Description:
Distance between the termini: 28 Å
Order of helices and strands: EEHH
Helix content: 40-55%
Number of strands: 2
Radius of gyration: 12 Å
Strand order of the largest sheet: 1-2
Shape: elongated
Structural class: alpha+beta
Amino acid sequence: MFRAMATQWRTGVGGITGLDYNVLPWLMKIEGVDDEAAALNDVRVMERAALDLIHSKGA
Protein backbone atom coordinates (compact mmCIF):
# COMPACT_ATOMS: atom_id res chain seq x y z
CA MET A 1 0.00 0.00 0.00
CA PHE A 2 2.74 2.46 0.89
CA ARG A 3 4.43 2.04 -2.50
CA ALA A 4 1.08 2.47 -4.24
CA MET A 5 0.70 5.79 -2.37
CA ALA A 6 4.06 7.09 -3.62
CA THR A 7 2.46 9.79 -5.78
CA GLN A 8 -0.07 10.88 -3.16
CA TRP A 9 2.01 13.17 -0.94
CA ARG A 10 0.41 16.44 0.13
CA THR A 11 2.56 19.53 0.28
CA GLY A 12 2.13 22.95 1.79
CA VAL A 13 4.15 26.05 2.52
CA GLY A 14 6.28 24.10 4.99
CA GLY A 15 6.94 21.25 2.56
CA ILE A 16 5.56 17.72 2.59
CA THR A 17 2.85 17.31 5.23
CA GLY A 18 1.67 13.73 4.72
CA LEU A 19 -0.20 11.39 2.44
CA ASP A 20 -3.56 12.12 0.83
CA TYR A 21 -5.73 9.45 2.44
CA ASN A 22 -8.67 10.15 0.10
CA VAL A 23 -7.26 7.65 -2.41
CA LEU A 24 -6.79 4.85 0.14
CA PRO A 25 -10.25 3.24 -0.15
CA TRP A 26 -9.82 2.92 -3.92
CA LEU A 27 -6.28 1.53 -3.61
CA MET A 28 -7.34 -0.95 -0.94
CA LYS A 29 -10.13 -2.15 -3.23
CA ILE A 30 -7.93 -2.68 -6.30
CA GLU A 31 -5.15 -4.24 -4.22
CA GLY A 32 -7.63 -6.65 -2.59
CA VAL A 33 -6.82 -5.62 0.98
CA ASP A 34 -8.86 -7.67 3.46
CA ASP A 35 -7.81 -5.99 6.71
CA GLU A 36 -8.18 -2.29 5.97
CA ALA A 37 -7.51 -1.23 9.58
CA ALA A 38 -4.17 -3.06 9.64
CA ALA A 39 -3.23 -1.69 6.22
CA LEU A 40 -4.03 1.87 7.32
CA ASN A 41 -1.97 1.42 10.47
CA ASP A 42 0.96 0.10 8.43
CA VAL A 43 0.74 3.05 6.01
CA ARG A 44 0.69 5.50 8.94
CA VAL A 45 3.79 3.93 10.50
CA MET A 46 5.69 4.12 7.21
CA GLU A 47 4.40 7.64 6.53
CA ARG A 48 5.65 8.83 9.93
CA ALA A 49 9.09 7.28 9.34
CA ALA A 50 9.27 8.86 5.87
CA LEU A 51 8.24 12.28 7.20
CA ASP A 52 10.83 12.08 9.97
CA LEU A 53 13.52 11.31 7.40
CA ILE A 54 12.36 13.99 4.96
CA HIS A 55 12.21 16.70 7.60
CA SER A 56 15.50 15.72 9.24
CA LYS A 57 17.28 16.31 5.92
CA GLY A 58 15.81 19.79 5.72
CA ALA A 59 16.95 20.78 9.21
